[in-house]
């Protein structure tokens, strides 16, 4: 029995393009971006597309935005994140493998698959007095 190929719709392509360009995006951000090309697309369709793409492994999940909304990530390999505590911008980082032995030693455990999110002020927000 053969497995049917994944259905790639114009909406799937638009959502992938959006996340690829932005790096990380919530459904509401994706919806705003995609409606520029497809004004009639609904928020429900965006939700269905991101869910489908995530289940396929085409996108991954990033830490939530400041409102608690799921953010999707174009980077599907395991990695860590930095989030600015003021502007909530998110950036991919790779630190887990470097500090895993110290964490295991301090906690007396063996970590199998953990990811780390660092929260602090980014350089832009640190230098801005208006934030």
Structure overview:
With 131 residues, the protein is α+β, with helices and mostly antiparallel strands. Helix content is 40%, strand content 17%. It contains five helices and six strands, in the order αβααββββαβα. It has helices spanning 10-22, 27-34, 43-56, 96-107, 123-127; strands spanning 24-26, 60-62, 71-73, 80-84, 90-93, 117-120. The strands form two sheets. Strands 1-3-2 form a three-stranded antiparallel β-sheet. The chain has a three-stranded mixed β-sheet with strand order 5-4-6, with no helix packed on it. α1 (10-22) packs across α2 and α2 (27-34) crosses α3 (43-56). The longest helix is centred in the middle third of the chain and has 14 residues, at 43-56. The radius of gyration is 18 Å and the shape is globular.
Question: Topology of this protein?
Answer:
Blueprint: H1 10-22, E1 24-26, H2 27-34, H3 43-56, E2 60-62, E3 71-73, E4 80-84, E5 90-93, H4 96-107, E6 117-120, H5 123-127
Parallel strand pairs: 4-6
Antiparallel strand pairs: 1-3, 2-3, 4-5
Helix pairs in contact: 1-2, 1-3, 2-3
